[in-house]
Amino acid sequence: MTVRLSVGYSVLTALCLLLTLSFDMRYAICDIQYSTFDINQPQADSPCPLPLATLTLSFMKILFAGTGTSSGVPMIACDCDVCCSDDPLNRRMRASVYLEVEGQCIVIDTPPDFREQCLTHNLRHVDAVVFTHAHADHILGFDDIRRFNTVQKSRIPAYAASGPMEDLHRIFDYIIGNEEIGVYRPKIDFCEVSCEFRIGDVVVTEFGVKHGPKPTSGFLFEGDGVRFGYVPDCLEMGDDVVELLKGVDVMVLDALRYNPHPTHLTVDNSVKLLERIGAKQSYLTHLGHDLEHKTLAQALPDGIQPAYDGLCVSI
Ligand SMILES: [Zn+2]
Ligand SMILES: [Zn+2]
Ligand SMILES: [Zn+2]
Fold first, then answer.
1. Where are the alpha helices (DSSP H) in 36-127?
2. pLDDT tens, position by position, 109-156
3. Ligand 2 centre from 70 Cα, in Å?
4. Phi and psi dihedrals of 43, rounded to 5?
5. Which of 28, 190, 213, 249 has the fewest CB atoms in 10 Å of its CB?
């Protein structure tokens, strides 16, 4: 009798253990799925509220490290309402994006604020740098890439079209020149690109846009089935480029101010181009101190928003 009871109790205990384990496994799976949730989606209270099939995976992360024009916002010695605003959405470092896709961490442009952007967003790894053009507000933080050489114990490739590459070679000639003992400088493999190239499994397409007198690139990044277009400095865009970018998942485009400018798009012209491109989500960047964030956001059509420093878009 005692033996039978003991066996029965053991079987019961084993069953309870199995049930407990199976519940734990279920929640573990749910936890794993949560870690890949789209950060823009609200999460429900219960630990596993949705069937797994309805959960969305995040494949590409676009972090806006800077969204300001060349002077940054606030501008030095300016007392306008936007420059004096307390709203952090009106504080803009110079334009740059940190892109994560297909296991690659790609920095697009290294503005003078690059070091501060890395510290602000705790950026720990850079697989590649891509330059849109060689204006000071897009390149003058490049020297700080050397810290990633040290941390990663590796050289880092930097990609640019032939025109910007010529300027990069001239401005950063000390990076290319012979090593000097005791001088700490970036270890870079400069790669001149045109049209389509690859960074790991990411397919990148370079295209020209009209901006200043010097050549300026925009880029289309494609990876994990997601398409992202980035054009931070632009006055005009050709029909062929609009066609190339049509229907991308995320499009980011220059919009300096409301009034015309000789080298940048106005808000109105940027919106017109974005409507032709028809991205699923569109963002304005390279914003000047004429643009108050909330006022601009309220005036824009559905699907188009002003970007802001620290905005992270997961697709
Ligand atoms: Zn610029
Ligand atoms: Zn101002
Ligand atoms: Zn520029």
1. 114-120
2. 999 999 999 999 999 999 999 999 999 999 999 999 999 999 999 999
3. 13
4. -105, 140
5. 213
Cα 36 to ligand 1 centroid, rounded to whole Å: 33
Ligand nearest to the Cα of 209, by number: 3
Buried b (16+ CB within 10 A) or exposed e, 89-98: bbbbbbbbbb
Domain boundaries, the chain: 2-35, 60-314
CATH of 60-314, one of 3.60.15.10, 3.40.50.1000, 3.40.800.20, 3.40.50.720: 3.60.15.10
Token digits of residue 127: 């697989």
CB atoms within 10 A of CB 264: 22
pLDDT digits (tens, 9 = 90+) for 59-112: 899 999 999 999 999 999 999 999 999 999 999 999 999 999 999 999 999 999
Distance CA 188, CA 175 (A): 7
Provide the 10 A C-beta neighbour count for residue 3.
Answer: 7
Place of tokens 């949560």: 34
| Global confidence as pTM | 0.82
| Cα of 236 from ligand 3 centre, angstroms | 13
Distance 99 CA to ligand 1 centre (A): 18
